[in-house]
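It is worth pausing here to work through a concrete case rather than discussing structure prediction in the abstract. The textbook approach is simple: state the sequence, then state the predicted structure, then interpret. We follow exactly that order.
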Amino acid sequence: MSTRKTTGSVPSVGVPHAPDVVAPEASSSSDVAEFIARVNAMPSAGRRGRLVFAMDATMSRQPTWDMALGLQAGMFEAVREVGGLEVQLVFFRGGSECKASKWTRDADELVRLMTGVDCRGGYTQVARVLKHVAKETAKEKIDAVIYVGDAVEEEIDTLAGEAGPLALLGVPLFLFQEGHDAKARIAFQELARLTGGATCPFGKGSAAELAELLKAVACFAQGGRPEVEALADQSASSGARRLLEAMKPGR
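Step two, the predicted structure:
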């Protein structure tokens, strides 16, 4: 069980308990791959990219919370550089608290919202975050999800089931792991594999790399893999290269 605390209220809307996902009929891996390829090939019609930034705010992260907030704030400078990206902050903590902010293009507002959160004791609610993302992208396409956490207390099979709809909707998960929890590592790797995303470590020693990685993810949200490849070619970005290596070929 993760133990964490919280601060004053953050301007956000509560994420309601989502209904159970009905398991779809089994499909072959080639059918799923073909469907995802069609989704990825759809033109964006010049719209802005949309990115969900989700974080675990339960108490197990308390010892490193201030450092983590500083790193995450620095990561949003990358969002400012890319420009035009719409971001929603989602966090969970406590027994059942899971909240989502409004969508915003203001990096400073994101930092303000994020630094208004502190930790409370409670279990992880990764499944609830995934349900929220599926519900949001049904309203309007979400291009990528970033998740930062250190533990997974839910069943991995349950999380994989929740990730299935995101895979079919073409929403990749980019999961940043703080610490070295084995179950979290396995869960993150599986969620990334299912959705065509990637996993990366999160810690003080990787601050510069995290900023580069977020910039690469932001570019992905704006224009898909070609945008990340362009970033890698134009700026020799280590984050872009690492993201391309971690993602599924052709994603």
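Step three, interpretation. Residues 55 and 91 are 5 Å apart (CA to CA). The longest helix spans residues 65-82.
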